[in-house]
Target: S-formylglutathione hydrolase
Amino acid sequence: MITKSGALQYLSKEEIALVTPDTSPRGCGIEGEDDSWDLGTGAGFYVDATTEKWKNNYNMYSYITSELPQIINASFPIVRIPFDNTRVSIFGHSMGGHGAIMAALRNPNMFKSVSAFAPICHPSECAVGKKAFTEYLGANPSAWSVYDSTELAAVYKGEMLNILVDQGSEDSFLKDGALLPDHFVSAVQNSSKFINLETRVQPNYDHSYWFVQTFMEDHILFHSKHLK
Model:
């Protein structure tokens, strides 16, 4: 994110501090944590794991929404003098987009805005999401809905939430059914009084950081508008 997204020039201009947490714990010594790209190291899916194998280390939801904000507030004068903890937004790419939207929907007063590049929108209904949720949360799908943006959006009744989603038309994950943005759009219709959603399909773009880099300025300006 820091080296590939091209965000720094826009952040500097808008005077926004960007925090880029990792996508999972590292080096936990859990059997199989490095066996595949979509589970374990690099793929925490922003849940608090409940299964025996993962629950002691894989608590990315609590880390992002509770522990990390406390660390930032206590450690970085740039956001502390003066600090207004209501001027916070969140965004992400792919699995990170899932995490950003999900965290915002679960914490209605925490973020001014949320945006995502090609997010995994309905993890309970796609292969990569089912794999991760089964490992981290168990085989019962009833435990998955609290970490699923589509399920959360369908019943959201919190503070008005502004969401921007960009999706490339030639994204292989979109074509393989891993992202399911149409499910999320349909779910938001049930909560349209509480969610202001803007979706954009970018012709000929894939899932890569070239896609992210091209539209990064739009996302920074989107958040800047709501933060300021």
